[in-house]
Amino acid sequence: MLVVVILVGLLYALPNLYGEDPAVQITGARGSAASEQTLDQIQSALKQDNIQSKSVALENGAITARFNNTDVQLRAREAIMKALGENYVVALNLAPATPRWLSMLSAEPMKLGLDLRGGVHFLMEVDMDTALGKLQEQNADSLRSDLRTKSIPYTTVNKIANYGVEIRFRDAASRDAAISWLTSRHQDLVINSSGSDALRATMSDARLSEAREYAVQQNITILRNRVNQLGVAEPLVQRQGSDRIVVELPVFRIRHALKRFWVQRRRWNSVW
Fold first, then answer.
1. Among residues 207, 178, 206, which one has the least CA distance to residue 193?
2. pTM
């Protein structure tokens, strides 16, 4: 058993020996995704500029092109940007060089934390008050629309505490007809009479919990999409607690970043 455990451990530690390839990551701008047509454009652009790539693959709506060194990587980025224009985000990246047979076994290199690779750490809090306030406005508009559809006259629609809505009517008969009509159409609202000529509609506990969950998940999705467009290696975007999101962005190796800087500086000097 000890021998088997050691062999399995060595097998899943192998990806760490292969290092990373300089890569260019291409993703669609404004929510669009890369396609097979985009892949053909990239391959044509690289071939036209005599740029050799290790591989160009389309996966999960993004294209990753791998190269042998950073000089070829920089040339490839310029050629791809020129071919695709502003419809795509073309970012430099470092892609794991794990062989395919190891990837098929779900063997991936160990992700280095910020203490080993360096980077930035953000802790963000979702503005629940704004999110629930917008939902409150949507509920008010929906209630108005339903009353107009049924031709039930009302006088005012006001926001109240706990993200509720109060509607006043000309008389109690109109109020009772509105309660009967709206209750069947809004299962996620608790609708009760208030005073002699008004009703109050408040969101149920289940609806409030669902709205809070949706607000957090929506922000996580947006952050992940924007981080992926940056081409940052090994990003971390995850939830912390009920309304907070942790974002950790490791940086590239210092040598890789400095090389990009000096290459760009030489080009500026040649222009001047």
1. 178
2. 0.62
